């Protein structure tokens, strides 16, 4: 089983490039890493950040263009000297499938080279908290792959699987899923903890793309966190989470089963939750602020990223409450996709194949 390490997620602000032909593959990954962490860049900026010669950069860029991984943007005019032509990733240059085994559903997505979701589906679990539909998951992955035209299917780099903290029953199921996917689809499969995968996807495609250091919160059935320093994800020694997530809210709504079920949807009308929703909101913000304050005794935390499957407007309200409690902290939200862990899983094969370590 391949475990895709989530760190480092990208190269440092300046990495040492090598000009020898024997390490051209490393240099290509160096350039692709810069493009993955920036929407556009120029040959001049590549040279400044890598130390590679202009001739080497031209050779690499020409090769990446021929492979369809990189494309030119519109020339930037109005500057001194000739127009500057930025470089960017070709969205159709590469694809990846992501699978996220969640609390109630397993999500399957297909994303392109810049993180756009091209296919998305969800498999409800027969039993909450347990995933055992291996055939169903494999079928959805095949549907995702078949959604592409035959030439583009050749550009699928692999399959990423985001899994919760392992239990004995989950370990055997995860291993069976891994073997089934590799055997039936003949693609490399990369496995990672689901929260670490979500943080990796956020750093590659989301609001944390340009952040070097931040605290990552994922709001799911429980509240999970990861610390990212110098683009590296730290999992900690134990999968500690806080019971102030959606499961806690569901318990609080036991007398309203209709509302209790609806909160698991990104389309839920949270304004109908009334005082129960307000109390949960405050409990969540208090727990998150407490975590930030505890960590601040050792590391200066200025930026927090909140990710979840819930609606974007609810995420922003939660972020505003945390900021009101801790004015020195900026809280960024990214809940738009509804499947951040699956997108993070898809990012694993891109990181493994195109980025430098």
Could you describe the 3D structure shown?
With 357 residues, the protein is an alpha/beta fold. It has three domains: 2-90, Orthogonal Bundle (Arc Repressor Mutant, subunit A), CATH 1.10.10; 93-198 and 342-353, Nucleotidyltransferase, domain 5; 209-337, 2-Layer Sandwich (Nucleotidyltransferase, domain 5), CATH 3.30.420.40. Helix content is 41%, strand content 20%. It contains twelve helices and 13 strands. The strands form three sheets. It has a six-stranded mixed β-sheet with strand order 1-8-7-4-5-6, sandwiched between helices. A five-stranded mixed β-sheet has the order 11-10-9-12-13, sandwiched between helices. The chain is globular and about 65 Å long. The model is unreliable at 7-14 (pLDDT under 50). Belongs to the ROK (NagC/XylR) family.
Fold blueprint:
Layout lengths: L1 E2 L20 H14 L5 H8 L3 H13 L3 E3 L14 E3 L5 E7 L3 E8 L4 E8 L9 H13 L3 H4 L2 E8 L4 H18 L3 E5 H12 L8 E6 L3 E7 L2 E3 L11 H7 L4 H6 L11 H23 L6 E6 L3 H14 L4 E5 L5 H15 L3
Parallel strand pairs: 1-8, 4-7, 7-8, 9-12, 12-13
Antiparallel strand pairs: 2-3, 4-5, 5-6, 9-10, 10-11
Helix pairs in contact: 1-3, 4-6, 7-12, 10-11
The H-and-E topology, N to C, reads as EHHHEEEEEHHEHEHEEEHHHEHEH
User: What's the CATH superfamily of the largest domain, by name?
Assistant: ATPase, nucleotide binding domain
Largest sheet: 6 strands, mixed
Radius of gyration: 21 Å
- Examine the coordinates and then state which fold CATH places here, giving the name of the CATH topology of the largest domain: Nucleotidyltransferase, domain 5
**Unreliable parts:** 7-14
Q: How far is the first residue's CA from the last residue's CA? A: 19 Å
Which structural class should the secondary elements be placed in?
alpha/beta
